[in-house]
Amino acid sequence: MHSNDDSRTSINLADESATIALAQRLAAHLKPGMVIYLHGNLGAGKTTLVRGMLNALGYTGRVKSPTYTLVEPYHVAGLDLRHFDLYRLIDEEEWEAAGFRDEFDGHSVFLIEWPEHALGLIPQADVIIDFEILAEGRKVKIKANTAIGRECLKQL
Ligand SMILES: Nc1ncnc2c1ncn2[C@@H]1O[C@H](COP(=O)(O)OP(=O)(O)OP(=O)(O)O)[C@@H](O)[C@H]1O
Ligand SMILES: [Mg+2]
Questions:
Q1: How far apart are CA 92 and CA 74, in angstroms?
Q2: Which of 52, 100, 131, 134 could form a disulfide with 44 if both were Cys (CB 3.0 to 4.6 A apart)?
Q3: 16 lines ligand 1 (CB under 6 A)
Q4: Global pTM?
Q5: Does ligand 1 come within 6 angstroms of the Cβ of 13?
């Protein structure tokens, strides 16, 4: 099922391969500086989506969840990407000490799990993806927040 308007869409993902197919479509529209928030419960599919995007761009190494490191950098297909998982971020002090403020240079693509743990510290999202766990599969709501985000969404 697929519903659409200018700034939001909702997609049912029956299984992991559907999540990866969505990741492949998204990967084709990533632009430097783009910020994507990934919301959803533990095990909802956020890292699966990131892994799918990186693989679609041609990354063949292991994509591990940055659960403890909080961020994992990648360079692939001419893009710098930063995959954040902020579940374990403690506070603003830890954020500053880790130098994360300097990460947001408008050049990399930012894929951020658990952005709600760092609101006010991270830039506004261009695209917000919200995973819901269903009895079978997942439902994702995708919302564009900026012109760049809408451009990405339009092409999905
Ligand atoms: N559309 C889908 N339907 C059913 N299962 C899926 C779907 N997409 C991904 N999965 C499975 O759900 C799990 C998602 O794990 P993943 O690590 O991606 O979650 P996460 O949202 O990153 O969790 P966390 O907040 O703990 O980092 C994986 O086992 C994956 O195979
Ligand atoms: Mg994850």
A1: 24
A2: 131
A3: yes
A4: 0.96
A5: yes
